[in-house]
UniProtKB/TrEMBL annotation:
Transmembrane segments: none annotated. The keyword Phosphoprotein does not apply. PROSITE patterns: ZF_SWIM. This is SWIM zinc finger family protein. Residues 119-154 form the SWIM-type domain. It comes from Streptomyces himalayensis subsp. himalayensis. GO terms for molecular function: zinc ion binding.
Length: 420
């Protein structure tokens, strides 16, 4: 079992900061579990009433505080995959070399989840799969303690996407071992370039895939001949730029690292970055945590006022490329989606303890609570992006991860404006 940190405490709305963590929340709220009980569970999770969560094949467990002087034992069960489904899933991961690399970097490839689902292998919970249990006397389905456990899990998925694999039946070590075996088998059966006619070779993708994504640097030897620590990777660049160059060696290394990351994503089939405009690419670079000097240089290069550029960077971090589109200007939304959101926000059954009633003004893709300084915007990704005004009458700023649920988005915006 894998111990993990607690869910966000009071004052922090977001249960997840990644798309896959938020996808877990969306799947939970689209399940057959009782909506009212889930609402109570959200409140418990935000109050920090869920203890350390553990994940094992097919089950999540945690102690959850309640009305009794001792915590309750809560658990949520999820079906494990069959051996045939695991073979399909592992083949899908091994088919694209960048997928394993992304997982080891702490990222869940979105296309992997889609491809697996299309092949009949669910990674995220299906609507009727989550099966809660608890030692409390509440016979609700789920009780608020098990519901809180479900919400708290999203933060742990942020930290380690391999939790999804553990819940589906195999640990991180078992998955990586199976992938290593598949990579080695592909390498052993790959055509040798020495036998090919002159002028021919192998496609770059196949050559890249022939290397194991879990490569371990060779160990050095001590004076006694025993294995020592792995040898440190060589410095990627050793030649300084010429005097007077507008960039430094550190700048070149940062760009080299960024290029390698993008190449890995392209090898995995993520081609969206190929169509980036110069502005979108500058925002993308700034969102990676570059130095302050780089940030200012990128700002000047785009010609945008510093605050406008900073707003786009924050929008990308919270909502991805769709978040940038939402921040750049008003969009024309689907009227039905806007109407559905207003209906959901007006429905008292969809509001938990902290949402309550709200008066909203609608304009284009935006729903605004003027008296509270909060706003949610519908993006081209059909998610709601929370915004706040740091000072009344000031510009609007993205404040929390986007979500498919307008009620959750509004609560995120409200929480962001609450005193800390």
């Amino acid at each position: 079992m894998t111990p993990a940190r607690k869910a966000p405490r009071t004052g922090s709305r977001a249960f997840a900061a990644t798309w896959w963590g938020q996808a877990w929340v969306d799947a939970l709220e689209a399940s057959t579990l009782d909506v009212g009980r889930l609402s109570r569970g959200r409140t418990y999770a935000r109050k920090g009433m869920v203890g350390p969560v553990t994940a094992a094949p097919g089950v999540l467990r945690a102690e959850v505080e309640g009305s009794a002087p001792w915590p309750y034992d809560a658990a949520v069960h999820l079906r494990v995959l069959t051996d045939a489904q695991w073979n399909t899933l592992l083949d899908a991961i091994a088919a694209q070399a960048g997928r394993t690399a992304a997982l080891l970097d702490g990222e869940m490839p979105a296309d992997l989840v889609d491809d697996a689902r299309a092949a009949g292998v669910p990674l995220l919970p299906e609507p009727d799969e989550l099966d809660p249990e608890c030692s409390c006397p509440d016979w609700g389905y789920p009780c608020k303690h098990a519901a809180a456990l479900c919400y708290s899990t999203a933060a742990h998925l942020d930290d380690d996407p391999f939790w999804l694999f553990t819940l589906r039946g195999r640990t991180k070590e078992a998955v990586l071992g199976a992938l290593r075996t598949r990579r080695q088998a592909r390498t052993n059966t790959a055509p040798q370039t020495a036998d090919m006619p002159p002028g021919q070779g192998v496609p770059a993708r196949d050559a890249f895939a022939s290397f194991s994504d879990v490569f371990t640097p060779p160990a050095t030897e001590t004076a006694e001949g025993a294995p020592g620590e792995p040898e440190a990777a060589p410095h990627p660049l050793t030649t300084a730029p010429p005097p007077g160059a507008p960039f430094t060696l550190d700048d070149l290394e940062a760009l080299t690292h960024d290029t390698a990351q993008r190449a890995r994503r392209l090898a995995a089939g993520h081609t969206a970055s190929l169509t980036c405009t110069p502005l979108e690419d500058a925002v993308r670079l700034a969102a990676t945590g570059i130095s302050e000097d780089w940030f200012h240089q990128l700002t000047r290069a785009t010609g945008l006022p510093p605050l406008d550029f900073a707003r786009l960077v924050r929008a990308l971090r919270h909502g991805g490329p769709a978040g940038v589109a939402v921040a750049r200007g008003p969009l024309t939304p689907d009227p039905a989606a806007m109407a559905a959101a207003r209906t959901a926000l007006a429905d008292p059954d969809n509001a938990d303890d902290t949402v309550g009633t709200v008066r909203l003004r609608a304009w284009r893709n935006r729903l605004t609570a003027d008296d509270e300084g909060v706003q949610i915007r519908l993006g081209p990704d059909n998610r709601w992006h929370p915004y706040t005004q740091e000072d009344r009458g000031a510009e609007w700023w993205p404040c929390a991860p986007a979500t498919a649920d307008p009620v959750a988005a509004l609560l995120a915006a409200r929480t962001a404006t609450a005193p800390r």
